[in-house]
Design goal:
The chain has 506 residues and is α/β, with parallel strands linked by helices. The protein has 15 helices and 16 strands. The strands form three sheets. An eleven-stranded mixed sheet has the order 3-4-6-8-7-9-10-13-14-15-16, with helices on both faces. A three-stranded mixed sheet has the order 1-2-5, with helices on one face. The termini are far apart.
Length: 506
């Protein structure tokens, strides 16, 4: 941008008239409730980065529900991502990323030229609730903006700053004030910000798809079953978001929080003020065992599985699925340890169900992890939600050409590189051969169609039917996209009978 263009943009943002300027504001200036924003035009999209959607959660606001952002006068630069929420360094963070407790920002990409109110997609990154960031290059929202979608990505509190419970915090909280799940509170606050402000970017606040992968996908399941999120979105996408998880009660989370606080340097009996004085670095280091969602009885009164089982999920279209190699999450863990979760009779039934697919115990363990944690619960959720709204189920098995000598299954998270057409923007960029490019075009097109219409009509692919328990339909993304019925039905049914026992049925 030339100096003169920059001056004109800022004069518009400040409300100063310029005789030679056009009457309409520039494409890279918008006004939200807090003030004017100056973004940047990149080809045929406009990016607005680092927008505060809540007040900095620092000092007295640490471990409190997010508060409204402050207003600003004049114009605010929105041309660089905000800080990354504190976490262990090195987890696929962008080069030069700065960490700060003051991290509650979001990013918006909109089409350069649009007609009418555009559909909106809000993206929640993964990372096990302890890591990750919206500013990873593969999440560049321009790829959706070019297809007529206003795309939003969100930073939210992580780890010991995002999911911390402690008796001292519970004692000081007002009656009914939510506790522990500050990261989820942030996600709700971001969706509320979208509802209030997205029309300024040309987005339609009544057509919002909330989407996420891994911990972000799990967050979408919580949002679908949490009353506080009601009415904030009209569709949902869950990529590898588990589903059958049961979560700590607040009392158990408080005990874990006391241990974490002591490891961070807090004295026995520390009050809330003393906890808030702990250094961020000490809290991050003390969270070596991981931390996550707790059922606090205020914001969260149940696990998502209970909400889906009893018909309390949001009545919105849902796209949900998993990958063929979710067992990559096992890392160096011996997959045979997974077999200890089952009785001899159950293992015999699983060996029969998987047949030649699992010729040894190590492979059987990998298959059981993949399907117990991701595949079967995705089908189970689709089946229960189908009674309330259309559900679309998938399994992603396409392996990038360059990796085919090393991989036989698609690792956890890699489907995002196809939904975002981002092989070249991966943390470790991959070359895209013709077949890879065709797969990115197909999958990205499916996601775009779902965001726009609620139906994942895949360009050049077969019609993707809504899931029904009787039809048991799934879209399998392999070298070709094809609709399968009764995909791994025997194994999934066995897992349903074991894992879903005790969950109320609608």
């Amino acid at each position: 941008m030339t100096p003169r263009t920059t001056l004109l943009v800022w004069l518009f943002a400040l409300g100063v008239g310029v005789a030679a300027a056009r009457a309409d504001p520039p494409a890279d200036v918008v006004r939200v409730q807090s003030g004017a924003l100056h973004g940047m035009v990149v080809d045929d999209a406009v990016a607005f980065e680092g927008i505060p959607y809540a007040a900095p959660p620092v000092g007295a606001l640490r471990w409190r529900p997010p508060q409204p952002p402050a207003n600003w006068s004049g114009g605010r630069e929105a041309t660089a991502f905000g800080p990354v929420c504190p976490q262990t360094a090195g987890f696929a963070l962008p080069a030069g990323a700065v960490q700060s407790e003051d991290c509650l920002t979001l990013n918006v990409w909109r089409p350069l030229k649009s007609v009418g109110a555009a559909p909106v997609m809000v993206w929640l990154h993964g990372g096990g609730d302890d890591a990750g960031t919206a500013s990873q290059p593969q999440f560049d929202g321009a790829v959706f903006a070019r297809d007529g979608i206003v795309f939003v990505s969100v930073e939210y509190r992580l780890g010991a700053l995002g999911w911390f419970a402690h008796p001292a915090l519970s004692r000081e909280a007002a009656p009914g004030q939510p506790l522990a799940n500050y990261g989820l509170m942030d996600q709700i606050a971001a969706l509320q910000w979208v509802k209030r402000n997205i029309s300024a970017f040309g987005g339609d606040p009544t057509r919002v798809t909330v989407a996420g992968e891994s911990a972000g996908g799990e967050a979408v399941l919580f949002l679908m079953t949490t009353p506080a999120a009601k009415g904030l979105f009209s569709q949902a996408i869950v990529e590898s978001g588990t589903g059958w998880g049961q979560y700590e009660k607040l009392s158990d989370a408080e005990k874990a929080g006391e241990g974490l606080a002591k490891r961070a340097g807090a004295a026995d009996g520390a009050d809330a003020a003393a906890l808030r004085a702990l250094p961020v670095s000490a809290l991050v280091a003390a969270n070596s065992g991981g931390i996550g969602v707790a059922v606090d009885g205020r914001l969260l009164v149940e696990a998502p599985a209970d909400g889906f089982a009893t018909g309390r999920s949001a009545r919105v279209p849902l796209l949900i699925g998993s990958n063929s190699g979710e067992d990559s999450l096992l890392g160096d863990v011996d997959p045979k340890t997974m077999l200890s979760d089952f009785t001899p009779d159950q293992l015999a039934a699983f060996r029969k169900a998987y047949g030649d697919e699992a010729p040894d115990d190590a492979t059987l363990g990998r298959d059981l992890f993949r399907d117990q944690v991701m595949g079967a619960p995705a089908r189970w959720i689709a089946a229960r939600h189908a009674a309330r709204a259309p559900s679309y189920l998938y399994q992603f098995a396409y392996i990038p050409q360059i990796l085919r000598r090393r991989w036989t299954r698609l690792n956890h998270g890699v489907e995002m590189l196809f939904a975002f057409a981002a092989l070249s923007r991966a943390p470790r960029p991959l070359p895209a051969f013709d077949a890879d490019t065709a797969e990115m075009t197909l999958v990205h097109g499916c996601w775009v169609a779902f965001v726009k219409t609620g139906v994942p009509a895949c360009p050049g692919g077969p019609a993707w039917p809504a899931y029904t328990p009787d039809g048991d339909q799934l879209m399998l993304f392999g070298d070709t996209a094809e609709v399968r019925t009764h995909f791994r039905k025997v194994a999934y049914d066995l897992l349903d009978s074991i894992e879903a026992t005790g969950l109320a049925e609608h």
